[in-house]
From TrEMBL:
GO cellular component: cytosol
GO molecular function: oxidoreductase activity
Source organism, top-level taxon: Bacteria
Coiled-coil segments on the chain, per record: none
Source organism per UniProt: Samsonia erythrinae
Pfam families: CCG
Domain Cysteine-rich, chain residue ranges per copy: 3-85, 133-216
Name the record gives this protein: L-lactate dehydrogenase complex protein LldE
Length: 239
């Protein structure tokens, strides 16, 4: 199957291993991965901060970049995927671009949903011994309804024990620019999240949205906890 890969800004600039493993995983599962070279930031920081008009040119650039073919567009980040899925809402006064936005949005799929629901795979042959907790990001499970797919994949990882923890679905406090504008509130939220995580005493924290993982990892590091933080793509490529 032919697919496109939308790397996201964080995947491109900060988490290249996550991006690499996402592509390798797709290739391992039989996909031919195309990288639209003109893809750019989804505009989420500006959109979430209320600068919609300023974000419109970037949205149009992104839409045009993802129109190279009609194949699925796979992304390892729920927040960026969700942002693009809502472009048409912001382009409502420009019917031509709104329609193009809807066509692109219909092809956007997060990595775990694509593997489980489109490829029909839950066991990718991964192995990672140890105890782990999974953090469900707000964008992925609240906005996109992706709840069971990451768990279905993680349950098949050999040697990995998935642990529940208190208030698992509570926001980590990142929220993009929220963590900057409301830093004190955000800090208390991630502090509470880490407290619940450490009650489970995991070896790994796993998630499917890198932005949340960066936020939680920062707090874990500041508190001196020896917990390895991994994107699910990195877990699924462990052998």
């Amino acid at each position: 199957m032919n697919v496109n890969f939308f790397v996201t800004c964080i995947g491109d600039a900060l988490k290249s291993r996550m991006s690499r493993d996402s592509v390798l995983l797709l290739e391992q599962l039989g996909c031919h991965v195309h990288f639209p070279e003109k893809q750019c930031c989804c505009g989420q920081p500006a959109i979430n901060s209320g600068y919609i008009r300023s974000a419109l040119p970037g949205m149009k650039t992104q839409i045009a970049a993802l129109e190279e073919n009609d194949d699925p567009i796979i992304s390892p980040a729920g927040s960026c995927t969700n942002a693009i899925r809502h472009y048409a809402d912001w382009l409502v006064d420009d019917p031509e671009w709104a329609q193009r936005a809807r066509q692109v949005a219909s092809r956007m799929i997060d990595l775990t949903s694509f593997i489980v629901n489109h490829l029909g795979v839950t066991d990718v042959g991964a192995r990672l011994p140890g105890r782990a907790v999974y953090h469900p990001s707000c964008s992925l499970f609240r906005k996109m309804g992706v709840r069971e797919e990451p768990l279905a994949l993680l349950r098949q990882v050999r040697g990995l024990e998935l642990l529940p923890f208190n208030a698992q679905e509570t926001c980590c406090g990142f929220g993009g620019t929220f963590s900057v504008k409301m830093a004190e509130i955000s800090g208390e939220m991630v502090k509470e999240k880490v407290g619940h995580i450490m009650e489970a005493r995991p070896d790994y924290l796993i998630g499917a949205d890198v932005s949340c993982l960066i936020n939680i990892a920062g707090r874990l590091h500041r508190e001196g906890h020896d917990v390895r933080v991994l994107h699910i793509a990195e877990v699924l490529m462990s052998r």
